[in-house]
Write a structure and sequence with these properties.
The protein is about 65% helix and about 10% strand. It is built from five helices and two strands; from the N terminus they run H-H-H-H-E-E-H. It has helices spanning about 5-10, 10-25, 30, 40-50, 70-105; strands at about 55-60, 65-70. Strands 1-2 form a two-stranded antiparallel sheet. A hairpin with a 2-residue loop joins strand 1 and strand 2. The longest helix has about 35 residues, at about 70-105.
């Protein structure tokens, strides 16, 4: 079953794995050393991230290196952009209101 990207990034460990892999490609063993959990547990998180196409494996000899898939994250960012514009407009309106209130109280 293919995982949902929102389900994948809702987990703090998977977000931490993404952050580490965004810096450099890592093997499951190297990732497991960064967390207080077994390699098998890290592999389950990797599986979810891979199913969502947020990471891509690359075989190098006997090792598999996982790379961050910036293109997939960019698709997610484009989806969020429609909401970002809405909340930025609301925050700008709030800033203007607070500035107006502050100016009135200092007079």
């Amino acid at each position: 079953m293919k995982q949902d990207i929102f389900q994948a990034i809702s987990d703090p460990t998977r977000r931490a794995i993404l952050t580490l892999i965004a810096i450099q490609a890592l093997t499951p063993n190297a990732l497991a050393e960064k967390f207080d959990m077994t390699r098998q547990a890290v592999s389950k998180h990797i599986k979810v991230l891979h199913e969502c196409e947020l990471i891509k494996p690359e075989q190098s000899g006997r090792e598999i290196y996982y790379h961050f898939n910036a293109k997939k994250m960019q698709e997610f960012d484009h989806w969020l952009a429609q909401f970002r514009q809405n909340w930025e407009t609301q925050f700008n309106q709030l800033d203007q209101l607070l500035t107006t209130i502050k100016e009135k109280t200092t007079k």
